[in-house]
Design goal:
By secondary structure, this protein is an alpha/beta fold. Helix content is 44%, strand content 10%. It has one domain: Rossmann fold, CATH 3.40.50. The protein has 10 helices and 6 strands, in the order ααααβαβαβαβααββα. Strands 2-1-3-4-5-6 form a 6-stranded parallel β-sheet, with helices on both faces. It is globular and about 65 Å long.
């Protein structure tokens, strides 16, 4: 389980910093604690610096708020991987799926439920902030954990299919809307390619490397290799084209998907949002607004339960 692995690695990292400060530099307990905190912050800052350095060769036109953008991405990285992901159960709880009324109508204004699919190296906790916004707007929202983390993308398709079936059974709805962040959008497209559109009302992708990313060359696992530009898996996924209404939302300053043109999916609406990082999309009011607008359009005419 990703949360357990992240908790263990975080504890070991902090223990290492404390031991170095106490025994190598004879620091006081208070000083050692501050050094451990600084170590946690600096390691993530160094990681983000390396990612932006790698992305620089493929950078898009400079943002006028570059420092704000980088700071936001750093905050999202810290919040996600230090606070939320390791303690997923504390932050997320169970999905609150509302059962359908006796006539099969969706209790949230006849809207289809939304199923959120997280990205590479993440968990359902990635949706903590956006899930709250969608629920506040009246949507019934479900999530899923894709595990094991670094397997092939095709291995996530059947678990997603089971989750789709479970959400529809619990809500009584006929179709779901899939929302995928990063790799999650590719998982959703692979699901549609294998299982068709009969149970899906639409698809929204956020920062998905539809045509791959150069950063995947230094990623770990089969799923990273499948996201390299020109990878055979991506070529297979590209044909046929998406079979449901699809909206692509991406940042023209994405620091994980490079070049940023790889975020676009030909033949569907593509909406660019400037000045935001890849992880920061998950905590952005502008992204939330764009996502809600896309959901309203896709969920405007859901089929009644039991219809063809």
């Amino acid at each position: 389980m990703l949360a357990r692995a992240l908790r263990l690695s975080l504890m070991l990292e902090i223990a290492l910093y404390l031991a170095l400060a106490r025994f190598a530099f004879d620091a006081s307990p208070a000083t050692a604690a501050l050094a451990a905190l600084a170590g946690v912050l600096c390691l993530r800052a160094a990681l983000l610096t390396l990612i932006y350095a790698y992305a620089w060769a493929y950078h898009s036109p400079a943002s006028r708020q570059a420092l704000v953008m980088v700071a936001g991405e750093y905050g999202a990285l810290l919040f996600a991987f230090v606070l939320i992901f390791p303690f997923e159960r504390w932050w997320m709880g169970e999905d609150r799926l509302q059962p359908a009324a006796a006539d099969g109508a969706d209790p949230a204004g006849r809207r289809p439920p939304v199923l959120l699919v997280h990205g590479y190296g993440c968990s359902r906790a990635a949706w903590w902030w956006l899930r709250r916004r969608l629920v506040a707007a009246g949507w019934t929202v479900a999530t899923i954990n894709l595990e094991p983390v670094y397997t092939g993308i095709d291995d996530f398709v059947d678990p997603l299919a089971r989750r789709v079936d479970a959400v529809l059974a619990e809500t009584g709805a006929a179709r779901v809307i899939l929302v995928g962040h990063s790799m999650g959008g590719l998982v959703a497209r692979a699901y549609l390619q294998r299982h068709g559109e009969s149970r899906v009302a639409g698809l929204v992708t956020l920062g998905t490397p539809h045509q791959g990313s150069r950063l995947a060359h230094i990623g770990y696992g089969e799923n990273a290799r499948q996201m390299r530009p020109g990878a055979p898996w991506l070529q297979t996924l590209a044909s046929p084209a998406p079979v449901v209404d699809t909206v692509v939302i991406y940042s023209s300053h994405d620091n994980f998907v490079m070049p940023q043109s790889q975020l676009q999916l030909p033949g569907v609406p593509n909406q660019a949002i400037d000045g935001i990082g890849h992880l920061a999309m998950l905590f952005s009011p502008r992204v939330a607004q764009a996502l809600l607008a896309a959901l309203e359009r896709l969920g405007a005419r859901p089929l009644a339960a039991g219809s063809a």
